[in-house]
Design a protein that fits this description.
Length: 543
């Protein structure tokens, strides 16, 4: 297919393929499908989507056809594979300039360059990385951003390859460019922090986008670029620096109102810092040991002390809780049952954790988890009021602990309680003791606190087996609370039913069941409690 003569024909077909009229659309799609295997077709597509004067929809479609062609025809063994000559020409054309003005098209071009890089870099495309490294240094704002966007997608794609030879190639790449990637990130972060105080949100947003992209590159290099990252001083120093940048960015966020583009992008950047730490911990638990202390200090200070008041946001709290949870329950950080069989690294990690989780620290964490993070929000109360059945299902949602505050809080509570039950059991029992007797229906704070404490006792049922006489508590306290008929007390009635459901498979005397059945029958008429009653009945039957 001759590029000069074919360009107008392919352009016309692409234009028709963007039509809403199926009579025009279908023949055009069929024609394009036939051209997919024609030599020169992808060179024509490249010339079309690189022509910024053409219609955006046409250029977008040209990019998509090119991207699909990489999947189907780029490999040497593929039927109708592209010739080496054409592939060489296409590779050169893809990185001639980085000046795409349309964001969506720029992203697609970056993705298709990464697809080619996955197959050809570095052996058939050794010039790609050097050109990208030079292009991210240019002064032109648009070109710098597009080159950085491409650099990220290429790095991400190369990091995802799993064959041993490919991983070694990526590790070689990481070693050679890590210092540059660090300096790039430092530069864009410092530029952003300087610009936010000028009041120019557009300029600040542009710098923040570069900060985010350079951090994404650094994340892939840090996590996947080194077999033994603890032996690389620069990697460890930079990873430790990730604990301090969120502090600056959190306070910088005060400059922007809620819902603003800058605030949204800033929060994404802060979350990305925590993702680097979580990924590093997941993939390199032993190299992470020197970072355990500062990780715990970082997460606990923001989530369980006054330091985070007024600056943290929900997703950040979730990430900090996930960081604590992963350290607490990580098997690599636990000594073997026979201490002599333990690895030195495990003993070192266990020592650090033991020194950090003092009685005072654990007590504060336990109290705040229950008294602050277990409290139902206005939104949750409204949801329960409007749709009790959906709310009950929502509370038990699968993998949501990784992303949503309530389930994440409950999972962290369970993990910490399981590992430090000796310290936390008296703390929780004291909270229960302080709430004995019926709550004042005119005091919503007290009602929410009792709901939170009962929730904690239900979650920790197995851990509390030897410390709570649940039969006695049922007769002396819980039974009476189920009989309080005031409309505002339905919050506690609902929680008590759930609590009994948690304990019935742990500790509940058979002779108390008739009494429980009477209560169940009397409450079956309450629509607010139907879903909880179903769960309780199913647990009774299963026993």
């Amino acid at each position: 297919m001759d590029i000069q003569s074919a360009s107008s024909v392919v352009l016309q077909a692409l234009t028709q393929a963007t039509s809403q009229d199926s009579a025009v659309l279908k023949p055009a799609e069929e024609q394009l499908r036939q051209w997919e295997t024609q030599p020169g077709f992808y060179s024509v597509l490249l010339s079309i989507f690189n022509n910024h004067l053409l219609d955006v929809n046409v250029r977008w479609l040209a990019v998509l056809y090119f991207k699909n062609g990489i999947d189907r025809y780029w490999r040497k063994v593929a039927p109708h594979a592209l010739s080496e000559e054409e592939k060489s020409s296409l590779r050169a054309g893809l990185i001639t300039n980085f000046n795409e003005p349309v964001n969506q098209i720029a992203t697609q071009i970056a993705v298709l360059i990464a697809k080619v890089a996955r197959l050809d870099c570095p052996r058939q495309w050794p010039e790609l990385i050097p050109i990208l490294l030079e292009s991210v240094k240019v002064q032109d704002s648009l070109q710098q951003h597009r080159a950085l966007l491409t650099f990220y997608h290429v790095t991400k794609t190369l990091a995802s390859k799993r064959l041993a030879t490919d991983r070694r190639l990526f590790q070689d790449l990481a070693s050679s460019i890590y210092s540059f990637a660090c300096s790039l990130w430092n530069h864009h972060t410092d530029t952003f922090l300087q610009q936010i105080y000028t009041g120019d949100q557009q300029t600040s947003l542009s710098s923040l986008e570069r900060t985010l992209l350079s951090l994404k590159v650094l994340r892939k290099l840090t996590v996947h670029g080194f077999i033994e990252p603890h032996n690389n001083m620069e990697v460890m120093v930079k990873t430790k620096a990730f604990f301090f940048q969120p502090f600056h960015l959190l306070f910088a966020g005060r400059q922007f109102g809620p819902g603003s583009l800058c605030r949204e992008k800033l929060e994404k950047t802060i979350i990305l810092f925590t993702k680097v730490l979580l990924d590093f911990l997941e993939y390199h638990p032993w190299p992470f040991i020197p970072l355990i202390q500062c990780s715990l200090e970082f997460a606990v200070s923001y989530v369980f002390t006054e330091a985070g008041e007024g600056v943290v946001f929900e997703r950040f709290i979730v990430q900090c809780m996930n960081l604590i949870k992963m350290i607490v329950k990580n098997d690599a950080y636990k000594p073997a049952k026979n201490i002599e069989d333990s690895k030195p690294e495990s003993l070192e990690a266990h020592k650090i954790k033991t020194a950090f989780f003092t009685h005072q620290t654990l007590t504060e964490i336990g109290r705040r988890l229950v008294s602050k993070y277990f409290l139902l929000t206005e939104e949750e109360l409204t949801m329960w009021e409007e749709d009790p059945e959906s709310f009950a299902v929502e509370e038990t949602g699968g993998d949501s602990w990784k992303y949503s505050l309530r389930p994440c809080t409950e999972v962290l509570f369970l993990d910490i309680f399981h590992n430090y039950s000796q310290t936390l059991t008296p703390v929780l029992l004291e909270m229960v003791q302080n709430l004995q007797g019926p709550s004042n229906v005119e005091d919503p704070v007290q009602m929410l606190m009792k709901d939170a404490v009962y929730n904690a006792v239900g979650l920790a049922a197995y851990e509390l087996f030897d410390n709570v006489d649940f039969d006695q508590w049922f007769k002396n306290q819980l039974l009476g609370e189920l009989q309080v008929s005031h409309n505002r007390y339905k919050l506690i009635r609902r929680r008590v039913i759930w609590l009994i459901g948690q304990w019935i498979s742990v500790k509940f005397k058979p002779e108390l069941r008739p009494l429980l059945y009477e209560v169940i029958l009397s409450l079956m008429q309450d629509p607010d409690l139907v879903e909880r009653m179903r769960t309780l009945i199913s647990r009774i039957v299963s026993r």
